[in-house]
Amino acid sequence: MDTVSQATPALPRHPRLPQILEQNWQAEMTGYYTYRALSEREREPGRRQALENMAVAEKEHAELWAGRLKELGEPDPVYRGKPSGDADSLKNRVGGDDLALRRLEIDESRDIAKYSQQLKALGDAPSLAILERVIEDEQEHYRELSSLIRRYPPRSSRLAVGRGVRAPGLDPRALLQQMLAKRNQGRSHTAGWIGDAIYGVNDGLGSIFGIVSGVSGATLGNSKYVLLSGIAGMIASALSMGSGAYLAAKSEREIYQAELAREREAIAVNGAEARELLSLYFQVKGLPEQDADHMVEHIASDPEQMLRALAAERLNSTEEALSNPLTSAISGAVSTAAGAFIPIVPFFFLSGYSAVIISAIVSLLAHFAVGAAKSLVTVRSWWSSGFEMTMVGAVEGVVTYVIGLGLGRLGA
Predict the structure, then answer these.
(1) Are residues 222 and 126 part of one domain?
(2) Distance from C-alpha of 148 to C-alpha of 380, rounded to nearest angstrom
(3) pLDDT in tens, 367-395
(4) Do 94 and 131 meet the contact criterion of CB atoms below 8 Å apart?
(5) What is the domain extent for residue 112?
(6) Secondary structure of 50-89 in the HEC alphabet?
């Protein structure tokens, strides 16, 4: 090949060539056992076949490296890994097979980079010929893994589409459904800071009302102990909610950035498929095929514009639509504190059963108001949502009060 003919006269043979080839053999054998173990656990026939095919390819790569080592007079290499490769490593057992596929996708990209560097360094024509074949296969493995991760149909069932050739007679919507993973199913979408605030009020109100009811039952409404426990619980709940909202929003943003980087890499690896996919999106929205293709070609002239357009469709989100971590933290903490403060207000002025009764009434009214306010971000009627929240609060208050009474008598 051209690469071999150009590289051979320019570079001397690498002094550690046998060791490098043996390392390549070990890596390919690990890949073989890993893909084989994952395929044996896969229940879906198409995905199982795809993993089996990759296992066979890895075994063939290993045989090529073993053959070259034999030609160099080296002994047969001995596999030093596990019978299941990396499939049963601790990190993959904890993360599951889907996470294992993501790690394999990263490993394939690293292998491509490693082999590309070897093309420039080995200086051995037969090894370079093997490298070129292996790199081509590893690139296909990377694309196949990307498809499996996103739960596309295996690439073998849509190779024509992957080359930018549309199969005749296929409806764009049906083809799009075939190509797309169910990547957004089950993903929660925030309703903005209003939703965070309502959730925070609800959490603070519910948790502190339970604390106040329990402590009131245990101490017969002693305002000192109720205030101490209520204020401490309010501070803890507000800090917990604020930090949790901040980390959740930050994680969502980081996941989006990671997926965006993955989309950028996918476009670089297979631009034709990316253009085809974006065209299908436009066709589903009503554009004629020719117009959609023309628009995609125009967008694809700017790689960043292509990335933003495809990401907006594929991820069903934009960076601007993501929650701001600081805003989420503040709204979550403040709203939780506000909700938590309501049940303890009567104990600043009253004590005994009168304080308990007033606190219960105020808290149940607040539960109804919060439930009704949820209708701002849900499709339920305000009275139904409010009544449901009130019933939940009432049950919570009764249960914790009875438990508190029992604990109080035990302590007495």
Answers:
(1) no
(2) 38
(3) 788 777 766 555 566 777 778 878 877 78
(4) no
(5) 2-156
(6) HHHHHHHHHHHHHHHHHHHHHHCCCCCCCCCCCCCCCCCC
